[in-house]
Amino acid sequence: MIENNQLEINWLTHPTGDSFADIGGFVIEYLQKKKPDKSILELIEEVTNIYVKKWDNNLHSFFLNSTITHNSNKGQKGINKTIAFYKGLFDGKDAEDGYCRITGQKGKVFQGTRDNHIMSGSATLINFHHGFESGIRLSKEALIRIFFVPLGVEQLGDKVAVLTSNNEGITRHFVQRNVDNNFRDIASGISKSIQRSEFSNPANALFEYANQCIENVKTVTFDEDTGRSKTQGTTLNLFHFTNFGASPTINLITLPASVFAFYAYCIREHKKEWQSFIFRQYSNSKFKNAQFDDVSKSWFNNKEEVDYSTFKVWRNSVFEALLNGNGQIIRKAFLAHSKSRILNFKIIEQYQINIQNMDKRTLTKIKELADFIVNDRSDDEIKKSMTRLNGSKSSNGLRYFLLKLADKNYKDGNDEPLFSIDEYVEYLFPDGTYWNEIRDLLLIAIYQKLHETNKKIEVELIENESEI
Amino acid sequence: MEVYKIDITSWTASFRYPNLISGVQPTLEVPPISTILGLINAAAGFYLEHKNLELGYYFEYEMEGEDLETIYQISSKYGKPTNNAKSNVINRKFLFNNFLRIYTTDKNIVDYLSQPYFPILLGRMNDLATVTNISQREILDKIEFATEIRGQVIPFKFHLPGQIQALPQYFTNDFPRKNIGTEPFSIISHKVKTFGTSVTAYRDILPNGKEVDIFFHQLSFEN
């Protein structure tokens, strides 16, 4: 086996690929930097005191029936048992020889179960482990790292959020921020448990994390040479979990690099238009008949008005669709927005090319068709075209619409065809693209063109529901 | 590089996160190396000792689904299983309509997979898989700074965009079996687009006509 050089690697802090162990490792790394005179056992002691004395053993989402969370371990008894357990790891108590499931180290390994590790199964229900072992086998370093996890994460709704990224700087940044916030609150006497996020749903929280990486967190992604944050090739992974009681559960949510880059593009290049669009996608069943005001950037109804600090925690259907890969919801939202407001077609191009993998030439052709429908046409003609286009209920309907345009182009006496046979096959009805995607994009492009040319066309388009 | 290509398909597949045992069971989007080596062992009918094995693979699926699954939890006493087994229900995610292509220079592996000794699986025992094609030896062109990396696990040292996970490379042949070669990997879904890397790989054309750059893992295991 290709062994890691264990002499050179600090297994308490070295990234392992395991989200929980890496968060714990970054907490230790940060604490060692802040308190260089303390040994790891002294840090364990300090953290144990926080867990028991400041947080009243309230770590049930992490450790089930542990030396901290079991009812019989309140007060000093829990502290003593916890320190004894971690000291025992250094003495090799109850250890056996093997390979750590997280770090891959060969050496002494210990039992890892739900009391000292997260989501790793019970010690008593043994048929979920290799060869009926009582738990998974972990090195002392892996177990110690897990003990530090609560300081580096935050509560998100009813579960805990663990955020990691392929960019270690981002993971480190959020861990250090949480550690700092915890110690600040502990010092001021207001900390009762781990940090609580102002968000409750993971989709909004993930985009807020991304937003911070793009706009504010210059220490993580900011490039001094270019003066911009690096936003290409960044993935965010959120583990949203609880290890509590009889209902442990975990949800893994990824903000892919393509979505991250798209989001960064929208915020940086078209912030005003993007906010006008994305702010309208928030909704809250308790805030009925609400309307959005572009000037004050707030939602209001006849009773109250709320600004971003309030509505940013509401559900956002587009954020959710971006994470779920639900292109239809996003396309419909683009179309609905385009009807009444300018939505730069470059935003749609970025989305279609980078996330939906659409050929750029398809979008170029769509824009050419929109130009043909709008340029030098009367309002009545444009209205008729839009009504017919929106009325296409099948691929046959769209084909007929396009052929009528080609016919019109020919009868107008234009030298060039509106589209060639190759363009029709390759770009307007390409493999992997639904016909209604082309129809909606063409409508969006027409609206964009109307906004650009300040044309007001009164047309009632009927909503097309869930077509495939 | 001259390699054999072995195509394997299955209706369902499920690749667990190694250390998530309680509650919901999510699936990795690409199998770890240990799953591929286990599959090859099943085809061989015995445990293979690997020294200087070069192995590449590509995995794609059509959709992800979620299933409710009955499990039986056997309780223990003094570390030994008892006769008490309680049923429970868990949510398990699975992948549908899967395609795996294994790249190897080793003719023995080709021979094992051309006539598997045991059924081959892509996950659990009901995720049965079928070898659908085995190519003749083919030359793949070397690509420096590969751009078409997808459907693979790549060592994390390259910091590629994707889910990061500590994954085993193999398991020992003793009881209880032990994970060996566990390292951090980036799991690159087959759905990602072209992106720049510092990875050296070998270019292949998939059955759907798309290009993919295959990273070859250098594997040696000594227990």
TrEMBL record, chain A:
It comes from the Bacteria. This is Type I-B CRISPR-associated protein Cas8b1/Cst1.
Automatic annotation (TrEMBL), chain B:
InterPro entries: CRISPR-assoc_prot_Cas5_N, CRISPR-assoc_prot_Cas5_Tneap. The keyword Ligase does not apply. NCBIfam families: cas_Cas5t, CRISPR_cas5. This is Type I-B CRISPR-associated protein Cas5. It comes from Panacibacter ginsenosidivorans. The gene is cas5b. Keywords: Antiviral defense. GO terms for biological process: defense response to virus. The keyword DNA-binding does not apply. It comes from the Bacteria.
